[in-house]
Amino acid sequence: MTEDYGEGNLIASTESFLNDVFESWVDSIKVLETCEEFLPLTEELHIVCRCIDSLAAKACTDPSLLSWSVSGRCATQSQVDTSLWNRINLTSKQDPMMDDWWHEDVASLQLSLFKRLILVVGSKGMSPERIAGSIMFYAKRHLPLHGRKSSFQNCTLSNMSDANHRTLLEEIVELLPNQKGIIPTKFLLKLLRTSIILHTSPSCRENLERRIGAQLDQAVLEDLLIPNTGYSVETLYDIDSIQRIVGHFMSMDQEETDSTSNSFIDEDQFARDSYSLTPMTMVANLVDSYLAEVAPDVNLKLTEFLSLAAIIPNYARSLHDGIYRAIDIYLKAHPWLTDSEREQLCRVMNFQKFSVEASTHAAQNERLPLRIIIQVLFFEQLRLRTSVAGCFYVSDNLEDSQNLCGKMVPTNDCIPMSSVQDEILTFDDMRERVAELEKECKNVKEEMEKLVKTKGSCSNFFRKFSLKFKARSSDQEPENAPSNGEADCQENKY
């Protein structure tokens, strides 16, 4: 079969034929698919590796330098784009090829050949973004990525067994590039949801959770609501996985902080570091929203709720309205909690970071312990005192500027006396508000002392105090104060 016995023997003819095949993308794909049926013979003849090298070289080529003939679409394109004008064939200009032109063709390969192709294109310098796009396309084609409304019907190989799907998913996760932000967080959460259903290995799940934790600030609440499908189902959603994901995010954020703590920080670097607080704040808001969604579950234990709520540091929450709303929903769904457990749950909140609306709602919330309501009133009083002190400071500056204007030549820029008098009236109203709050706190202390002496019911005092607080609020703001029915309807707003 060699040329020693004459020209045009089998080996030379076969080599010439294969060289012609490897110049065509479509022919190389067909040959590689055919080789799957004759393994390992085609491996011994080095046909598989030559096909993969040929495909990888074409896939790594700049798409702008390629024509549709490379991908085998020239024939179909010519039939569509060719028109006749005055008996002259005119072919319209073809659109440029996209970076993903090769994804659909390689998605028909078996996993072993696809994996080898991905490793070769990576060694040839293909960008991680293009590699990730091909892997995502392959996963969507062959895996039942379970969304909230999806099923196995979206998978072309739905007749595969769970064991084959499990192996396929584990191999795809290993192929994903390690660079942060290349794979969308939504897609990673779909892979995690599917891996939980298929019961993949712990290393596979840990890999996905670590990847999601690195870019958790890009996630949305709907994707985090992963149903609990374990053998011992206690809660509606998989709380443990989310807690591990948040833990990965916190540890990575701490590593980035420690790496820059020992270096000198100039003014520009401080401005850049202040921007890094934004992902932490986004994750804090996401966790608070997640807690509010899972709080109505009666099977959710207090320790699980607390561990997830306390993992977020205090500085990450600019306002504590979100965590207060989640705690209020949890207290409503778990009325059997003791007073000590309620107080333990409320320690997660910082009342100084409550908005005015949240403070007003908390002061009238009968589900909160009495000690917590007193603390809310105390910080509300402290906030009003600070506001009054600031207003008096502004008033003094206005009076000084008014005196200065009186000594100078009158101009249109001087502040009129009527505006100063209006400011003084506003300050008097705030002073009266502070005096009423001090009187209210004094009455609360006296009532508590009476309860301790008489060992009376705490609920009676709480009802009396709540009615008194509502009556005072209605007297001061009769136009904006909501009725009892409206307050009940807006109960879960905060």
Automatic annotation (TrEMBL):
<feature type="region of interest" description="Disordered">
    <location>
        <begin position="471"/>
        <end position="494"/>
    </location>
</feature>
<keyword id="KW-0833">Ubl conjugation pathway</keyword>
<protein>
    <recommendedName>
        <fullName>NPH3 domain-containing protein</fullName>
    </recommendedName>
</protein>
<comment type="similarity">
    <text>Belongs to the NPH3 family.</text>
</comment>
<keyword id="KW-0175">Coiled coil</keyword>
<dbReference type="InterPro" id="IPR027356">
    <property type="entry name" value="NPH3_dom"/>
</dbReference>
<feature type="coiled-coil region">
    <location>
        <begin position="420"/>
        <end position="454"/>
    </location>
</feature>
<dbReference type="InterPro" id="IPR043454">
    <property type="entry name" value="NPH3/RPT2-like"/>
</dbReference>
<dbReference type="Pfam" id="PF03000">
    <property type="entry name" value="NPH3"/>
</dbReference>
<feature type="domain" description="NPH3">
    <location>
        <begin position="100"/>
        <end position="383"/>
    </location>
</feature>
